[in-house]
Amino acid sequence: MDKDLILAIRDQSIPLTGPSDLDRLISQMGNPRFVLLGEASHGTSEFYTTRAEITKKLIKDKGFTFVAVEGDWPACQAINRYVKGYDKESRSARDVLTSFNRWPTWMWANEEIIDLIEWMKTYNESGQSSVKAGFYGIDVYSLWESMDEVIRYLTEIDSPDLEAAKNAFTCFEPFNRQNEEYAVSAGIYNEGCIDEVAKLLTTIQRKKEVYPHHEELNLNLQVNAMAVYNAENYYRTMVVHDERSWNIRDMHMVDALNEIMDFYGSAGKAIVWEHNTHVGDASATDMRDAGMINVGQVIREQNPPGHVYIVGFGTHSGTVIAADEWGVNFDVKTVPKAMRGSWEDAMHKAGAFDKILIFNERNKHLFNQQIGHRAIGVVYKPEYERYGNYVPSLMSERYDAFIFIKQTKALHPLSVTVPVSM
């Protein structure tokens, strides 16, 4: 381990003892339009609660107008409708979170997110801001659910485009709402539905200003149609080009994020919650060598300096919610001590306490050597993590700041029934 690196972390970092210590981080951000908050896993309690505290401060003190997360648009709309008061029936955030029935359900159907949802609803009702804070899902997986939403919306407004949408979606009927079946058919046998959904998306985008705007129905239609188009492309590509499908997914998240920003206009200020692998600039990792991009890189490239601020997260050890294989039941797994010589190991050796490290022009050169940085997915086998869970990274180029929680605990999932078809 490089002793100079440990000394630099010790010298430049500040202790994180509670929510008030986050004020220094927020003051260092300046006035960005995008704040991207990462996580080293999708199943760690402290990553959610710390991001929630930052989010509250950004909304209340800096006028941020929405949260965009690594979740499905249709399911997250249930949260958005609740916090904005469009939903007159749900009595609590806990009721609303039953909408999250796609595996891995624990990413959003968890105890930790409830406090933020209720806080946002109360904040919006207080009238402290003329713009109500929203909550949106920008991921690409909601192929079938977004089709349902497009049909529902066009039916509700008695649109002349309804028949065109039904005809386009008829192409998908043989696949029984199974992503895997469609992926194999479209990717290997070239029996996809790209032409149908492309025509529909073009039609909807051309008529963007014609559709009604009340309760954000126009925005819902636009993003759901985009999700269908990009999800079709994603599933068609994933079985033959894994790197290319990654780029399709992250570009969809960028496009959805920009669509929301356009909806909010000059008031738009985004807080993005996604895994470190999506928000931490890919050009500062070995992803670049594989031709892969991500949300953090593209948003930085699309915006002027100072408009984007990226915060990474990590831990030394603890527990996490994850599964052994895709689609199977989760359990609580032990996160072993960080691998010797890794970024997390250096953060721990610089002082065994929670800390914030802010990168700036004066200190960036101290942290620009390539080093392994741990990433834990929804599928995780701790015994094999040294062989694939550390991403070579230039940390001060990948992030603008880093939050280190020395010992973390597993997320607390809600009990949600997952349909058999999922």
Q: If you had to describe this structure to a student in words, what would you say it looks like?
A:
It is a single chain. This protein has 422 residues and is of the alpha/beta class. It folds into 2 domains: 3-123 and 269-408, EreA/ChaN-like  fold, CATH 3.40.1660.10; 143-267. 42% of the residues lie in helices and 15% in strands. It contains 16 helices and 11 strands. The chain has helices spanning 3-12, 22-28, 45-62, 73-83, 93-96, 111-126, 143-156, 162-170, 179-187, 194-206, 217-238, 242-264, 276-279, 295-302, 343-349, 395-398; strands at 14-15, 34-37, 66-69, 134-137, 270-273, 308-323, 330-335, 355-358, 370-374, 390-394, 401-408. Strands 1, 2, 3, 4, 5, 6, 7, 8 and 11 form a 9-stranded mixed beta sheet that branches. A hairpin with a 6-residue loop joins strand 6 and strand 7. Helix 3 packs parallel to helix 6 (111-126). The termini are far apart. The mean pLDDT is 93.
Give the secondary structure arrangement, pairings included.
Layout: H1 3-12, E1 14-15, H2 22-28, E2 34-37, H3 45-62, E3 66-69, H4 73-83, H5 93-96, H6 111-126, E4 134-137, H7 143-156, H8 162-170, H9 179-187, H10 194-206, H11 217-238, H12 242-264, E5 270-273, H13 276-279, H14 295-302, E6 308-323, E7 330-335, H15 343-349, E8 355-358, E9 370-374, E10 390-394, H16 395-398, E11 401-408
Helix pairs in contact: 3-6, 7-8, 7-11, 8-10, 9-11, 10-11, 11-12
